[in-house]
Backbone:
């Protein structure tokens, strides 16, 4: 995924049941970078107001915040990742789904474009389902 920003910020909402999918130790990535750009990982309080970030993971326990989050991030270059049924129809760019005891993802190219993001061919090929 590519967007116009120069620093990478990965954020997830607190309170998600499967927070293990996002590292608990934010310091683990404090010395990492993508190219010359540093990575910043932050955990947010329960709120739909999201400071500028590139990737936002919202866990299933925070579904109630999603309509407000979608409105707040409309048109912004943020990859919104979720983990609930029909999330792509709601506006998510990527959504984790469990099939046959395996965690997979589905993607919406349409929603990615709304967020000024491009989906790489490899991501589309590896996805369980892609909405073009």
Residues:
């Amino acid at each position: 995924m590519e967007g116009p920003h120069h620093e990478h910020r990965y954020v997830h909402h607190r309170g998600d049941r499967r927070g293990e999918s996002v590292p608990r130790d934010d310091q683990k990535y404090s010395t990492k970078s993508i190219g010359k750009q540093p990575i910043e990982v932050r955990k947010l309080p329960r709120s739909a107001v999201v400071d500028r970030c590139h990737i936002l993971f919202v866990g299933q326990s925070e579904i109630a915040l999603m309509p407000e989050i979608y409105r707040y991030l409309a048109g912004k270059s943020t990859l919104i990742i979720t983990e609930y049924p029909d999330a792509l129809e709601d506006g998510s760019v990527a959504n984790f789904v469990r099939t046959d005891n395996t965690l997979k993802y589905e993607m919406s190219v349409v929603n990615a474009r709304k967020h000024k993001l491009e989906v790489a061919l490899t991501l589309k090929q590896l996805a369980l389902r892609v909405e073009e």
